[in-house]
Design brief:
Length: 338
């Protein structure tokens, strides 16, 4: 896509640029620290070549969303992506975004800023992505609590000392008395606890053997199962095409929706093994290229391996690749420009 609409920088302290109308700063994701200067009233976000704001996040669709300036202000619209847009604790398909707010595509958190902000705001240090995520999830939990509270049946107010109040107290006392009577009548007041029956013990053992999957299987309704199946099928298509990272992301989504999806769990493990094998082969190619003096090619292989290990940066292989890239960059700087 044309770079006239958007220009990318890696300097988080980039001051206001000529023609800039807004900017997107990446707070979390494979491209963390990237700054996209927007010079147009409509740009596309995604990981494909069609995108103006292009990221390498495998959980972001090729053409994921569009950012437009409208009569209502700046609006982010989902373009039929698999994962939608995450904002303020929920998944949405369209939202009005104000300067200073953030939204998430896949695993990439974007911070949106308009060009009319003060320079100190445009060049301020990036927020920590983890803190932003915690804030979103806290907001989501708060919304759930409010929704649950609003759905709870409300008890009618009873004036203290009224006939209704006295009647309620009498009913409560009678219930307590009845429960105490039953307690002692059936011998439940003995100090020694009764041993569970054979049937109860057998059922308990069976439940333990079945585990959590057995307990949750009955709670998966048809709509949830259908959604999980869609994610699984999309993941399987990606897997057959050799796109193991994208396949892994879809299998994980399927299991988030339905933890009991056996095929998704199986192919997630298979995809993880294939990714591990691909990482090993890519690193080996990087080593061979470096040994034969093809430094730029070697750097490309090491960087590709690092992208595959983005979510596991404590991995010794990731650390090795990172060190190799630094060494190669130093060697390339010393080389004469042709």
């Amino acid at each position: 896509m044309s770079s006239l609409k958007v220009q990318r920088f890696s300097n988080t302290e980039m001051e206001r640029q000529p023609g800039e109308v807004a900017r997107l700063r990446i707070l979390k994701g494979p491209d963390r620290g990237g700054i996209f200067i927007v010079r147009d009233s409509s740009v596309i976000l995604g990981r494909g070549e069609e995108a103006h704001v292009r990221v390498s996040d495998v959980k972001t669709s090729r053409v994921h969303a569009r950012l437009d300036y409208t009569n209502q202000g700046w609006v982010v619209t989902d373009l039929g992506s698999a994962n939608g847009i995450f904002s303020q604790g929920e998944f949405i398909r369209k939202m009005t975004v104000k300067s200073g707010e953030h939204f998430t595509l896949g695993e990439t958190i974007f911070e949106f800023l308009t060009s009319d902000q003060e320079t100190r705001i445009l060049t301020a240090p990036l927020k920590k992505g983890e803190e932003v995520e915690q804030m979103d999830f806290a907001l989501m939990d708060q919304k759930k609590r409010v929704q649950n509270y609003s759905k709870a049946p409300k008890q009618p107010l009873v004036a203290k000392g009224s006939e209704a109040d006295q009647s309620s107290k009498k009913r409560t006392l009678l219930m307590i008395a009845a429960l105490v009577g039953l307690y002692f009548y059936f011998g439940m007041g003995d100090d020694a606890p009764k041993a569970p029956s054979k049937i109860a013990r057998k059922k308990k053992d069976q439940d333990k053997e079945r585990g959590l999957a057995a307990e949750t299987a009955e709670t998966v309704d048809l709509e949830v199962a259908k959604t999980a199946e869609q994610y699984y099928r999309q993941g399987f298509r990606e897997y057959r095409e050799g796109n193991y990272m994208r396949a892994k992301a879809q299998f994980e989504l399927a299991l988030q929706v339905n933890p009991n999806h056996g095929l998704a769990r199986h192919y997630l493990l298979v995809a993880e093994q294939d990714i591990k094998s691909l990482i090993e082969k890519t690193i080996e190619l990087g080593r061979k290229s470096k040994y034969t003096g093809r430094l730029r090619e070697s750097k490309g292989f090491f960087e590709a391996a690092m992208r595959l290990m983005y979510n596991d940066q404590s991995n010794p292989d990731f650390i090795e690749c990172e060190e190799e890239v630094k060494k190669i960059n130093k060697e390339l700087e010393r080389m004469p420009v042709k």
